[in-house]
Amino acid sequence: MERRTSVDMDRRTYVKVVGAGSVAGLTGTAGCIGSLTGSGGDKKLTAGTAPGFPPFEMKQGGELVGFDIDLLEAVVSESEYTLSGWEEFEFKGLMPALSSEKIDVIAGAMTINEKRDKKIDFSNPYYSADQSILVRKGGDFSPSKLGDLSGHPIGAQKGTTGEGIIKDELIAKGKVSESNYNSYGSYVLAVEDLVNGNIDAIVIDKPVAKTFQSERDVSIAFTYETGEQYGFGVRQGDSEVQKALNTGLKAVRDSGKYAEIRNKWFSDS
């Protein structure tokens, strides 16, 4: 898995480098109000995530697991806060849930970009990723560049970088018609449609594509480099939580715990 030395760069510097991207949010499945202070003055955080994005966040036997889950729990344990629990949403519901104080931090493989940064703040980056194009394994369609997707039904998850690429680089430039684009509430549904032949390709984050490739009858046709990085989301102006997450993230990296968690969830690390 590709690693970049810029992973610990300052969030504001990173946003200026990357430029604008795409965003949206979905409806939450739970809605307990997050609280920064509990009884006795304990500092507590409620985290929000969007299962269905393996290996970052997913359900196994009814349990919420994944790289983001383990990492945030480790990061918070290195701070003065405690994690009171997790709330689950579809991806585009995470930012509204944060803004309405249903949660206090987002751990959902969320790419840092200027559009999102106008609405929420981010921790320092904790993971680097590009976009991959998934196709059916053994199928006749073997694209090698974005332009090859022209004339084919394709899909992505709502509110993700993959959807942004399809809209900005393909539909807006007349390479793919609006009618040939299918948006999904989760990539699990998109992969089902791909395997069943309802669409011919999916644009999806590279590490997630590799997980689906190992588990389903799909394969990565090529990877489109975006230089994107993920960060934990916090409410705008919540510098106390932001600082705590950055301090905890550094401690987890310095102790070797980050590498341990990464190696647990990514087989090529």
TrEMBL record:
<dbReference type="InterPro" id="IPR001638">
    <property type="entry name" value="Solute-binding_3/MltF_N"/>
</dbReference>
<dbReference type="InterPro" id="IPR001320">
    <property type="entry name" value="Iontro_rcpt_C"/>
</dbReference>
<feature type="domain" description="Ionotropic glutamate receptor C-terminal">
    <location>
        <begin position="44"/>
        <end position="268"/>
    </location>
</feature>
<keyword id="KW-0732">Signal</keyword>
<feature type="domain" description="Solute-binding protein family 3/N-terminal">
    <location>
        <begin position="44"/>
        <end position="269"/>
    </location>
</feature>
<dbReference type="Pfam" id="PF00497">
    <property type="entry name" value="SBP_bac_3"/>
</dbReference>
<protein>
    <submittedName>
        <fullName>Basic amino acid ABC transporter substrate-binding protein</fullName>
    </submittedName>
</protein>
